Amino acid sequence: MKLLFSLGLLCCLVLLNGCVSTTSKSARLEPQEAALVSKVEQYPNDSLALRELVEYQLQLFDESPDFELFSRLEKNLLKGLEIAPSERFFAYHYYVINLKLAFVEGRYEQKKWQAFYQQHPFLATLDLAPPVYVDYLLKEPTGSEKVAILQQSLRTNPFFMNAYLELARHYYTEDKTALATYLMMAARRHNEESVEVLSDLVHYRTTQLSEAMCHADIRESVPAVLEDARTLTRMVPDEAFFQSQLAEVFRLNRQYPLAIFAAAKAAELDKSYTDYLLELYLWDTRLDKVMAFTGDAAQQRDVMYVLPKVYASIAALNWQEAAKQASLYSQLEDAEPYGVLYGAYSYGIMGNTAEREKLLKLLDSTISMSDWHRNMLAFARGSIDEAQLMAVADDRCKQSEALFVAALQHFENHQTEKANTYWQQIIDLGVMNYFEFGTARNRVKALKKAAQ
């Protein structure tokens, strides 16, 4: 059980708290509850009779929280602890309802409940918040204090999944993906049934692969992540995000038809994933699918839909269309340097130097660029040569981009044969989820077909 209450339940609990002073102390019981109360009164030391009453009251409380009912329930749970101290049922539910009460009152006697927690060690073997975690929820600490509380929560109860999830997400936001992955793998050892843990694990491991492929060949590391992603979709087959995660790992494993299948499933479940499916069509060398997509007015001005068309046009050597799409892309919010730079080259290849320079100036003035982007821009303007660009491309990711822009420059200089030698080099670098890789796959396929 996870101690994360829905907004609806919290609202009910707040209402419960607001009714404290107005609820009658002699609330009339429902016939079934009255009958169970009568049975308990008849057999005061019968823990089974008391348990039946508590189970019914818990059901009522879940359906309609009420302070008078809460008081009766708490009283009966305390009685259960007295007459059957070894029965976990009473200890568990007494602990849980008081966790809920803490959110209503906004305070929690941590020392009292820590003592209770230690008296009932089985609580630390359940997916249930330890007392220290309640402080985390009530106080909303940040930074080192947040980390310390979450770490203490895990030391107190290594079976409590929310602490793993929260701490891992904190590390992930600090770019400590390896730590986040380690935590999720530890969580999986304690609970293989947690969908949320497995989803986060797949996400972190996929992120690690994407980071690692800039420095090394990752192909041997992909199958283990792929198995986790498959397991996740078997557990919850109708979750679009999980299908998109599977599609991404298939892409990293160079299984493009399967990536398309999973991405299509995601888009079928949730139309917001259509852009991702469109992107993967490029990798599967189905350029017609990319270019034929029209979409609605919003999609036509969305970078996630326009950018694949820039690359698909380059892959088809359709420089006019590439330039057109890049010009549109350059005016959109969230446009990044690559689509604009490659569009400038498309204009240059057609001999339109004015539009080429216009897009290059746009890069300088309105689009945020890193030092690496500025090196690529310097290359496009002739300030540095290809050897100098490759010298500052200090990882595989940058090298793939450098080779791509160098290929475009050779096209611009009417050196088509030279340009065509770069595509396989880009593929060999193994930066599988970069658009440059997807475009290079199309060019290699086209060249092989032409050579037959």
From TrEMBL:
Superkingdom: Bacteria
Species the sequence originates in: Alteromonas lipolytica
Protein's name according to its UniProt entry: DUF4034 domain-containing protein
